[in-house]
Amino acid sequence: MMKRTLYLLLLVATWAAVQKVSAQEETIVFTPQWTAQAQFAGFYVAEAKGFYREAGVKVRIEHPSVTQPAMSRLRNNECQATTLQLCQAMEIIDDGISLVNILQTSMNNAMVIVSARGKDPLKQKGARVGIWSVGFGHLAICMSIKDHLDYQWVRFSQNINLFVSGALDATLAMSYNEYYQLLQAGVQMSDKNVYRFCDHGYNVQEDGVYMTREYYVKHKEQARRFAQASRKGWEWAAAHPQEALDIVMQYVEKNHIATNRVMQNLMLKEVLRLQIDRESKKREFRLRPDMVRQASQLMLESMMLKREVTYGELSEN
Description:
This protein is α/β, with parallel strands linked by helices. It is built from 14 helices and ten strands. Helix content is 45%, strand content 15%. Helix 2 packs across helix 10, helix 10 packs across helix 11 and helix 11 packs across helix 12.
């Protein structure tokens, strides 16, 4: 009986060791949805500080390009994980690609509308408004339809030149990115000409980490370790923002991104602020079912979804 027990224990230990080695050998290629910047600081920290290695998971961070956006890489199995805004993920699921949210890094919405010449965005019916060509403006489209504003959407890639030059009446901006670019360009900001979605009934979460459900089902333990190490990276960044910024700038320089430390410092502070839930006052790193319902309802009403996308479809069940 003793020999049999020892044999079984040896088998279990061997199996566990094999599973750990297998998880370590297979690399997760992680593609953030945009170029290198402080928006992804926690992931850079997790790689640079060895948190992924300590968790027993191999991770390689590869940024997207103009010809290979993040979601295309995920569809083509060129990466196993990516960041998406909640509304983006719901739209993709509605199109028939099953996704799983393994870590939620945003607890608040960062989007704003900035109007030119100090005008109120809600009083500019039919205005020409800048929107990202990569598709981050779902809530703005919902708001425009719901409030009968009939905005004319003008696509832009990554800068605010069209707005600053006077070609647009208003533009969408992220509070951690384009908002600061506009300030640096001399645009006057006030409560009159800046509309913050989070303060007007549109506080829907944004960035989360997603995998295809097909990949997740086959690699649950690896996904769990990746998510835990990424969370540790973000918690470290919040506790050591200047050291985290040093790491961000290494990635920025490596990827030849035209930015500066001042801009990235502002971005990091705002991204970390947006991670704190308004109700609990904590970094929860979880997808909120109420925000999923709200986003689904808004997108259904605006005919951006063909059906309701539920929290259960996004969660690790």
